[in-house]
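Re: [help] complex structure
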Amino acid sequence: MTGPELAAIAPFGYVVALAVLVILADIARPGDERVTIVIGTLGTLVGLGLVVAVGLGGTVQPVFGGAYQLDPLTTFLDMLFLAIAFLTILFSPDYLRPRHYPLPEYVATLLFAISGAMLISAARDLLVLFLGLELLVLPGYMLVAYAKRDGLATEGAIKYFLLGSFSSAIFLFGLAFTWGYTGTTSVAGVASHLQQVVTSGQVPAAGLLMGLALMTTGVAFKIAAVPFHYWTPDAYQGSPTPVTGYLSVGPKIAAFALILRLFAEALAPMRADWVGVVVVLAALTMTLGNLVALTQDNIKRMLAYSSIAHTGYILVGLAAFAGAPAGSTAASAGIAGVLFYSAAYTFMNLGAFAVVAALQGRPGVTSQIATFAGLGRRAPLLGALMLLFLLSLTGIPPTAGFFAKAYVIEAALQSGGLVPWLAVIAVVNAAMAAFYYLRVVVVMYMQEPAADAQAVTDSRPMRLGLLIAAVATVLIGLVPGLLIPMAQAAAAALQ
Amino acid sequence: MTQLTVLLLLLPVAGFAITALVGRRLGPRSWVPAVAAILATWAVAMVVVYSQLTGGNGDAGLQVTLYRWIPAGAFTIDFNLSVDNLTAALLIVVTTVGMLVHIYSIGYMAHDPGRWRFFAYLNFFMFSMLLLVLAGNFLLLFAAWELVGLSSYLLIGFWYRRRSASIAAKKAFLVNRVGDVGFALGIMAVWSTVGTLDFTDVFNLLPAKLASGAIAPWEMTGLALLLLCGAVGKSAQFPLHVWLPDAMEGPTPVSALIHAATMVNAGVYFVARANPIFSQSGSAMVIVAAIGIFTALLAASIALTQTDIKRVLAYSTLSQLGYMFAALGVGAYVAAIFHLMAHGFFKGLLFLDSGSVIHGVHDEQDMNRMGGLWRKLPVTHATMLVGTLAIAGIPPLAGFFSKDEILGQSFKAGFLWVWIVGIGVAGLTAFYMFRLMGKTFYGPSHVDPAVEPQVHESPRSMTVPLVLLAIPSALLGLGLGLPFGAGAISSWLDPVFAHAEQTLGRSPETFSLFGLDGALILISVTVAAVGTIAGMRLFGFHWPFTARETAPLPDRVTAITARLRPLYTASFHKWWFDDLNDLIFVRFGSRLANGAWWFDRTVVDGTVNGTGRFIQRTGREVRQIQTGHVQNYALGIAIGLLVVAGGYLLLAGR
Amino acid sequence: MAGLPLLALVVFSPLVGALLIAFMPRDRVVLIRRLALATALVSFGFSLLLLVGFGGAASDAGGFRFVETATWVPAFGIQFKLGVDGISLLLVVLTTLLTWISILASFGPIRERVKEYMISFLILEVGMLGVFLALDLFLFYVFWEVVLVPMYLIIGIWGGPNRIYATIKFVLYTLVGSLLMLVAILATAFAFATAHGGDFTGAFDYEQLRGFAFSDVLQTGAFLAFFLAFAIKVPMVPFHTWLPDAHVEAPTAGSVILAGVLLKLGAYGFIRFSLPLFPHAAQSFAVPIVVLSLIAIIYGAIVALVQTDLKKLVAYSSVSHMGFVTLGIFIFQQQGLQGAVLQMVNHGLITGALFLLVGVIYERGHDRTIARMGGLAGATPVYAVAFGFFMLASIGLPGLAGFVGEFLVFQGSFVAWPLYAAIAVLVMTLGAAYLLWLYQRMFTGELSDFFRGLGDHLTDLSPVEVMTLVPLGTLVLLLGLFPGLALGVIQGPTDGVLSALHGTVTALAGTP
Amino acid sequence: MSHNLDAYLVLSALLFCIGVFGFLARRNAISMLMCIELMLNAVNLAILAFGAFVPSLHGNAAVIALIVMAVAAGEATVGLAIVIAIYRNRRTPLVDEYAQMRD
Amino acid sequence: MLTIPSTIPLLGWSWNDLLFLILAGGLLGSALMVVLGRDIIRCGLWMIVCFLFLAGLYVLVGNPLVAGAQVLVYIGAISVLILFAVMLTQSKAGPARLVFHHQAWAAALAAIGLAVVLVIVDGATSWPLAQPDRSATATTDVASKLFGDFVLPFEVVSVLLLAAVIGGVFLAKKDDAPRSDSDI
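Output below.
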């Protein structure tokens, strides 16, 4: 392997090593969770630096015969994944410690999952994609079950696991069809083969379409698109709150990374075939997610449905890509929209869950929305942060969530076919969503705290994490120009 | 002279401002700034009038532009004043009566704790009224129009603790506004047609437009009728007459000044002012005449049976205003203005007299609880008799000249029906006025025995204005109306109306005292005399300077009333106009408004809330698919897979 | 003053104040109040500087002054671009004025969570000023939405008993409209970019878009989306039902701002964006909108007649009065448009003052039921005079501000079609009816039992309350006597709007 | 038949669907896990069949199949661990009785 | 030497075809037993049988190496694991008599539907790159691929298994930490 190749693979290897290091450190100094936190946070920060260092200047470096490729898309997503890891590690101790769950295995498992996500972002081979996906989700199941003495957590975990495995099998079946049809596992190979088919004007063979259907189902499940979303509310609600936060962004964005590599790259020549399905999925996902979120009383469950809705918004970007001619600015805007939205969503949603976790700092505090009663008075800063995150989720300027929505909508408007209508559906949904987000604000600011309201935790890591999430949420909204060129470069890498 | 004209407005405003700001602290002397301001105003007005009537301001009169009020693109309205002879005539009445009423009020309001407010309002009214007569364009006139309405509102509702007063005030304002709706539309129509609202320009351009065919005759008529709406409201003509009798809830000086002598004349003034417009439309003229003479008859018929002294006078005012409108309608502009002036003086006098009476009998207004007061209120009685004779049209008092000219000109202009009704109303007028006199001053006293000993003549500040007003009431006709058809009033006003009269084809005829005109005078005087005598006979009379007294005949009155029961009832209930209004506006209106409110809540807002509820309910139903059973979820995924596969496979052919 | 980013100072000075307050200890209530007031006054001062520096009547149609430009999101050509013309100048001054008055008026009533309140209020001001000054559509939208949140909190936290229902209704309703507007803004930008070879430079720049001819389909869609957003904000019938609820529940200062400025945002949007950007669509939808405006005028007045809650009555009167504004705008006529702008300013001053006055009596008795009132003229004469003054202004008494704007709208609609004017002018009677009836019930007669029961609490206006009302009263009188002060600066911009619609102004000036 | 790709694919499809049926119909978590294994094996059969008939996949298919097996093993490990954990909490392996979270 | 006819007498099938049919029938039959069986332990045993048939098919399709791995991994490891888990989770209180969810009929419909679609699709597709006949895969070929082109997946699988083991051990480990009420 050459030096540049090693460098390209370095971030992935680094994160795996970091996970192992966490375990080793625990073996060396059992019970010292500070070590875990320090290694986890500093380690992810160093990893972030590594990603930036190797990806700087838009390097494109294939490794392993092109099965793995470092490009701006990889860099963009890896930064995001490491940020997710970093924040999740910051948010977790306050929740896990009082409940007596050990931190080292948790952090290691999380880092394994992140390594899977990073593998997806770089994979240009379908088998590697599948492996990355498995490496992402298997630790994910375990994170959900991490509160193993908790009935709900394990219930959520087994539902997540069973359905996840089911969908993985379906997805793999679809991959098998694709391999059989194209005779290759490489993304580029599949794409060029399909391009020939499309160029030759043949009707795609039934086997290929069936494979497409199976793969669509598989990835739709992973991103929790309606009607493949059923696992989401239960798994989200059951998970330990910091894990819920992670689940809502990590696996989702990784699954979108998978979609970008698989659908927007390998299957891109067939986009005319799958754009319709994406449009329908997007519309259904936004609408159902928001509709049901309206009626929830548990904030985690509510945010679970809300995350389904946000999947729909991100899908609008994908639809914009698929509906536009190849290589057009609209297509690239769609991809950039997906990426931008993912980034914005990461910070605001993680932030929101972090506030929930902070509220649940003591065992026994539930995540019912009523728990938030009077938060604006009990903990003004925390309340204000939650307000910020909720506004961003609603899409009120000048927050990240607003600009993200504007981005995908703009992309959708540029696209063809039915896609522009998604813009209208999206904004109608956004208005509907405002109701339940603002309901939390109502509880926080317009109701009095319960008499037995518990104090909220604010450890230093939690505070730091919240600060970072908040600053990012505001900054992305105020100066989106910081992020847009990166997203555009990443999108360009796909073309 | 320009500065003096501006001073006419500034002085009352200053009086108003000073009184409003510091009046309260002046206590019993709160009248000083107000009265001083009005005295000064009067003096200035007289100078202006003199200068104008003697031709000191040239043919075009005085034009003063203060500043550009509304510069809205093509719509530019100046704050400009103009003085011509018509204005001058009005100035005389307004400032004179105004000044006297101010003086009178010093005494009349002496015991009211809110008198500073009263004088402030009066000053404000004077300002508004002067602005009204001085305004040089339609919009400014409209503004003043509204301001006098406001003053009237404030003064009617002066005793705000009295529910009836505040209701009457509101009614006056609203009924006026109804008329103003049309007025405003008329002004808009004028601007839309000629692009300016300046009187001079409009009166030149509009007839030219009609002549050139740029606007159709019906449009001219419509325009005139819209403008007429405002005049009808302000001058309380049928069907907007209902507010004036109720306006008597205000203090009596207010009734005298605003609701008899000045503000209610604004409609007449305006139609006269707009004569170049009205004279272009024969049908509009007929409508004006019809409204006027009908109002005259209607009001007179009601006045016959009312027992509240001020209400009788109010209906009489309506009736006299009707005469003026009739005069305007038949094209007798000069006569209309003449009557306006005369009426201003004698009706102001009558109201002040009634105030003096009311004051004397301790705020009693019901004539059935008066009687025999002539002895105790000698000055009041004497001056009121002058006023009564004047209004009854007994020569040589003012009313005779002006009313006679109206009737004569209607006859000669071919409006026979106006003349016939007018003559009848003249008789009724004389009758009900002497009924009033009789019930108040003559016959046995029906005053509350508790009050009887304390009945007293009013203080000097009140009686002096009475006397001062009695003089013009008696002599104005002689001064301005002689010789018949060519008196001073004619020479003043002919230049203003010459053009209109020419349009109408009225060539100045010679007056033949021993011909047609003489005959007409004879008829009307006879009718007036009959009314007078009937009144005297039935309700009693005391011949001045003698001991001769005619006793009232209550039995005869009762008998006559019984015979004319239906008419009596109708008259007594004011032809049920108030009830009709109540039905239409209060009952029906409130039902409409409540209906709209119901619609707003259930339909409009119901749709909004219903949408929200519908979405929530849908959400609650949709969430049921989340059963908690993994197998159900998996089945959902499998079905989803089948659907997606079906979609791909079936749509692949495309 | 050249080189000073005056507009940015006006817009962001309240934000600076809000940040300062954010770092204050929450128990230093007095200090927070004073700081908030000072901030608002500083902003007001800057806006006065703007007024002075604006330099009289603008003859150049639609020209913007003090334009400040900075790139914001270069990838989409989004700029931070502010500029002022006569229309926005007036509204900016109105906003800064009403804000400090509202803050001053909140000193007494708001005793809880003062810190949050003042921060909300100042951020609200930022949003409102931004809307009036933004010359970039995206920036405009951002400010538009920024307005929403603080108002939501102000009603929701410091409002009346049913505040949550009202505030959520307010936000959702407004959001539904504005989000579609966002789609329209993005669509127009895209259309612009497409026409310029996919280059987004200037695609959100108002001044560039104004000169761009959008396709009729896009015009129709975008116009309708903008219309919904603005119509809800104005609010036009039938999108008005959030307004009475919001007003009833809002604290006094919230109502003042709501009626005084927020409603103007919609009307301003019509003038600034709907007409110049989508002239064809505007023309094809003008008649229905005019009809809706007429309905609003009459319907609002009729419904106001039977209101039992003082605030609701004033709220419905707002619906009626804002009907004039939309009527004036959509008759596409010089007098109408100028009248509409003037009416916006007037309504802001007058209704703002009326809400302050409602707040005064609510502070005393904590009840707004009209039926329980009566006889205040004797007990609180100064209050009665003040109320009467603004009531008369609201009725449209000549000499006070309301009249000129109203009459210009009447005149304009008469030129457009006399029947429009004939219907609209009915409100002269209806408007007088509900207000005079209100006045009669509140102020005349004997003092009601309810007020009698208040005893010493029923005091006349306090000096602070007088201080809040005097500037408004002065302006109402000033603008009534010298409307030219305002009309002068809006002549140019309004003609600009009309010429965009018609090609030439003179064709419709109304002069024969 | 044994030299016909379609035969293997049909067999794979049938095995897959049997697995799907079992997954949808069984109540026991471990039964469901077994069904997933059936499905994964069906996929492996398909992959190997393709490997046998598509020259460019010749060696690759076997490798892929091996890797899939390893993944299946990992999945089974995790799944069984979760099953054991929830069994400790709930004392039943029947998945449809884990329905505390719903709606 | 006893020579076996190259085709089956009477039927004219190749021996491989017969073998295929036997293996296929056994595979599907045992798979059905796994799915339909009432006793979960027997189901587990049937699964082993099923995997054996599958290994046979792998040989038939020319991949003895994978067949060997199948026996080792699935039968040797996964099935045993599953059987252990079955034993661990059988409680006396709840004899799992009702093994089927009440939506079994719908499941059957869905599965049959899916099968129909898949079979039709298989039949309708002519796989563009496929040869008419199969060819066997050499073991060395697999080895070189595994450590050549596929070294990344190979390494990733090891990471994956490591992660699974770490997590699995934690989850399955019984600990004595205090049990709290669910506060999710």
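The longest helix of chain D spans residues 58-90.
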